[in-house]
Amino acid sequence: MDKIKQYQDEFWMKILWYREFEETFEFVQSETPCLDYMPMEILIYIFSYLNPADMFSVMLTCKRFLEAIKYPKFNRNWILSFSERYASQFAIPLRIFTSTTCQRIIPAVAMHTAQVDNESSEEFWEYYGHNLKEIQFLSGLLRKEEFVNILKYTRNLVTVKIEANNMFKNWEIKRCGYDPLRRLNMQHVRNFSLARNNFLSPDIFEYLMMTVPHVTTIDLSNCLSIMNPPERNKFLDYVLIYLKENASRIKSLNFANTPTDDFFLDGLGRIENLKLRELHLTFMGSTKNNNFGIPILISSQDQLEKFDLTASPCANDLMVRMICNCMHNMKVLLLKKCHNVTDFSVRELHKLKNLKSLEISDCDYVTDTGIMEGVLYGKPNNKMTELRLGVMTNLSESVVLRMSYYYENLNVVDLGGASNAVTDHSIQMIFRHMKFLRFLNIESCCKVTDFGFTGVESEYSIRKHSIRNLKGLQVLRGNGLYKLTDFTLIDAFVFNELKELYFARCNFTYDGIAYLVKNCPSLEVLDLSECSKIDDDCVELIATKLPRLKTLKLNNCDEITEKSIEIISANCEDLRNLFIRNCKINFNPEDNLVYMRSLRKVVV
Amino acid sequence: MDIDRPSDPQVSVVSSDGTMFHTTLKSILLSGTIKDMIEHIGEGGVENMGAIPLQNVDSKTLEIVIKWIEHHKDNIQPTSEEIKDKTADFIDPWDENFLEMDLDKLYNLITAANYLNIPQLLWLSTRKIAMLIKNRTPQEIRSLFNIEDDWTPQEIEAVQKENQWCEEK
């Protein structure tokens, strides 16, 4: 008994100590509790449910909330994106981010343009640079000296992306003597991307890699396409030499859309100690030799967790079977547009027990049999969250029916263009079972009608399953569902989380849009292109009721006039992209739109 | 010590204003704070433990908490790591109904759930506040929660200017 008493005393002593020192306990007994007096940890907990658009509202509410939003974990969702404003002559005003005025530090910067305000540029990098974890150069020519000058302030970078087509065009490497690149040493960089560069040379690659001695992820996707083959091979040979020397460190490689040949893949497969986690390839070459090229690579990389073979015309059944048999750690497998893959290998996919995400879109030879036996077979795999089966016209309803209860917990389902598989009946089963869907693509599945979406067959029948069941839906792609009418929007569209909605080529009118904008207030991207009944009044509704709208697409809408442009420029405060191609607007829309400070891109 | 004994002994807790509440061991163990304490007491301690003083929770709030833990005593409680998918909207109708209370009570409930370390209750109650914030303008948030606007127009403009260059990754 004494022992218990002693422990209790100690315990309460501890609590009392907490009360004195921890903010948490100060407010517990405050007379009038109020949200802005909540302990910081609780505010952070509450705000972690919100999406970025909500966070912008919250940070403008009061200073204490802004403090909570500064929490580093939240900052990871954002990037400072310096792209030129629409039709604006002004350079990007970096001075608002310098020491005296800056309210918030965001640890990632993307430079879409080199056109910045030069006077404050140095000051900006000096003040902001050491906070940055990620930097992206996405276009524009930077001289080597300018580049070095920026990076000398950014000591803590983890991710560097240099993805500008001709960035290195005029860079010369001085083999002898002093080169400014030698001054750089980015110790913390782990991810390094040179994607979309067509002017790479072994010299530049060597010097750049020297500046990032601890890199683990290298992205060389979309590169080298306009280089002539001898130069390209010389470059790839050098990459192989580099990988050989650093094999044990490299964990992820990306060569998507970069022309690589069998000799390169063979070389890659024969590097000792290279155990990749992630690999992206577009496999173009083909040899009949089973001991050369890709088979060697697949059999050597048994640790692979993500394998992206998107758009590989020469990926075949043999390869996919090898993947199913060798790579047991596989979590993400993407086989989009691998036209040579058939049921023969797809039916073995069930051997990959750890799959989280699978894409077999656009593989013409894959049918019901392959999917039923390979993907929807045996004990369901609980880890699966993403399944993409787009543009598969061979699939029938029964695949979707089975999927809807077999993989109830999927977050992402892509059935875009699977026009035979998605019917009123099968989509009803999706709405019935798959309550955790965040992303749904059913583009061009034109068999779907109002009944499929709302579950209401006639006035007197019992309501079945409505799309409203998908309470967490964030993205819905429904372009070309022309049988839907206003009834669907009025009856079924109540989504608190819906951010992106694509309904091009549909027949909605003013009445439906009125309900849509009222019940889906989070919309940021809205596509109503080629909807013939969208007129100025609809645009007025959209512009006034959707304050968070960032992208609006109204291509080929014949009814909209100059008045719409006026309404948009007066009301949409946060609009970034506007698409009004082929609209019958007579005057030059730039007159009104140049005053919109948020606008970045207008496609006329 | 094995705390999952078949019998479910009575336990008493006392609120900050001195009101005593009776509940069962199984229910009270949903609180991580109390579970930690009981686990340290040792064999045979639970029956003789006496009332547990909870000096940071008043009687009104404690009554609500006890109602909740008694309803959920047989459910498997997820750990805080498991409460990941936070936008999931599917909560038990009983809980939905339970959380119909005014904001003051809700604030007290959140602080109590945090102090008593009941992850599921903390998740439910903070989520409720977050849902109220969703899709509102700063002005609406201020009037809803009765928050004073402490920004100057210049400061607001500075934050807005910065936000114009911010994008979601």
Task: Note down, in words, how this protein is organized.
The complex is a heterodimer of chains A (604) and B (169). By secondary structure, chain A is α/β, with parallel strands linked by helices. Among the domains of chain A are: 2-75, no CATH class; 524-532 and 547-604, no CATH class. Chain A has 23 helices and 20 strands. Chain A has a 20-stranded parallel beta sheet, with helices on one face. In chain A, strand 3 (134-137), helix 8 and strand 4 (159-162) form a beta-alpha-beta unit. In chain A, helix 19 (486-492) runs parallel beside helix 20 and helix 21 (536-545) packs parallel to helix 22. The longest helix of chain A is centred in the N-terminal third of the chain and has 20 residues, at 2-21. The N and C termini of chain A lie far apart (83 Å). Residues 15-30 of chain A have low confidence and may be disordered. Chain B is 49% helix and 9% strand. Chain B has one domain (10-149): Potassium Channel Kv1.1, Chain A. The radius of gyration of chain B is 20 Å and the shape is elongated. With 169 residues, chain B is mainly alpha-helical. Chain B has a 3-stranded mixed beta sheet. Chain B has 8 helices and 4 strands; from the N terminus they run ββααβααααααβ. In chain B, helix 3 (59-71) crosses helix 5 (103-116) and helix 5 (103-116) packs antiparallel against helix 6 (119-133). Chains A and B meet through helix 1, helix 3, helix 4 and strand 1 of A and helix 2, helix 5, helix 6, helix 7 and helix 8 of B. Strand 1 of chain A pairs antiparallel with strand 4 (166-168) of chain B, so a sheet runs across the interface.
Salient structural properties:
heterodimer; A: 604 residues; 20-stranded parallel β-sheet; B: 169 residues; Potassium Channel Kv1.1, Chain A; 8 helices; 49% helix; 9% strand
